[in-house]
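RECORD CONTENTS
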Amino acid sequence: MDALKHLVDFGIIGLLIALSLWALAVAVERWLYYRRVSPTQFDDIQTMEMALTKRLVVIGTVAANAPYIGLLGTVMGIMLTFHTMGTSGTMAVGAIMVGLSLALKATAVGLLVAIPCVVLNNVLRRRVSELLTLYKVQHGS
């Protein structure tokens, strides 16, 4: 069962941290791109929209799935706690609290990853909308 504990601690939480860093890197790259892009450099609105929304799906996917990955860690942590209680044959409060804190830690990290990703996704998609509207105004569409 130590393997399960390490899987929750390092696997689930490590995965969530890696996903958050990936989403943050994409968000920074997209923001820097939006700062230097001009609607006049595109021939048509479809090409512009494809260029602007490139890789935004990464941020949205991380935002949508991070809570579920955290929930997986929660379920695994609770299973670990029940298994520990069942094999030891005692209801030691300390063992129960350690297991539940491990489970809740996974949930918290999942939410800490998802919430900023949702905000970043909304901010970047708003900027895409602004740039597309500027293109339409400049090109009379």
